[in-house]
Write a structure and sequence with these properties.
The protein is an all-alpha fold. Helix content is about 55%, strand content about 0%. It has 2 helices and no strands. The mean pLDDT is about 90.
């Protein structure tokens, strides 16, 4: 049986400050990271059509 979902803890102090700063200034994915995601998506798409392809 599944476990119940617990409450999400509230961020306080330095953790909250870091979270807000990172939310305001997100880092962009590099071209290599974007290509890796696209390649994984293409493989997943192929597997969904034919699960025995790999």
């Amino acid at each position: 049986m599944a476990r119940p979902i617990t409450e999400t803890p509230i961020l306080t102090g330095q953790d909250a400050v870091r979270f807000i700063e990172r939310a305001k200034n997100p880092t962009r994915a590099t071209p290599e990271e974007k290509k890796a995601v696209q390649d994984a998506y293409k493989k997943f798409k192929l597997m969904s059509k034919d699960p025995n392809i790999f």
